[in-house]
């Protein structure tokens, strides 16, 4: 997964954050740890990882809200801070 993020970065995605979610990565702390370590190594800490623990629909709705907001940057609780968990139903910024 970290390599896919690196590929997107190389293609000009211009992101500062990488949000992962879903029951597999949420329920397996070692998988999350491997992803964050791989991301840090491959991107030289240029991207901040975030773990979204809500349902996929909630995450999609949050992302849509963020992308359609006038500020159109990381807002509305999609990101929370360095390697932290994004809490569903709460604004973390």
Mean pLDDT across the residues is 80
Helix percentage range: 40-55%
Shape: flat
The major sheet is characterized as: 3 strands, parallel
Assembly state: single chain
Q: What share of residues are in beta strands?
A: 5-15%
Structural class: alpha/beta
Report low-confidence residues grouped into runs of 5 or more.
Answer: 73-82, 89-93
Distance between the termini: 25 Å
Enumerate the strands of the largest sheet in spatial order, edge to edge or round the barrel.
1-2-3
How many strand elements?
Answer: 3
**In sequence order, what are the helices and strands, one letter per element?**
HEHHEHE
What's the number of structural domains?
1
Folded structure, characterized:
- The chain has 93 residues and is an alpha/beta fold.
- The chain has one domain.
- The chain contains four helices and three strands; from the N terminus they run αβααβαβ.
- It has helices at residues 2-10, 23-27, 29-43, 56-68; strands spanning 17-21, 48-52, 85-86.
- It starts with a helix and ends in a 7-residue tail after the last strand.
- 19% of the residues are buried.
- The model is unreliable at 73-82 and 89-93 (pLDDT under 50).
């Amino acid at each position: 997964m970290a390599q896919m993020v690196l590929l997107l970065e190389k293609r000009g995605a211009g992101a500062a954050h990488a949000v992962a979610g879903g029951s597999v990565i949420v329920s397996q702390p070692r998988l999350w740890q491997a992803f964050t370590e791989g991301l840090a190594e491959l991107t030289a800490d240029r991207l901040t990882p975030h773990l979204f623990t809500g349902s996929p629909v909630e995450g999609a709705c949050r992302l849509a809200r963020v992308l359609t907001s006038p500020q159109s940057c990381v807002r509305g609780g999609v990101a929370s801070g360095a390697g932290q968990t994004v809490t569903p139903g709460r604004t973390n910024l």
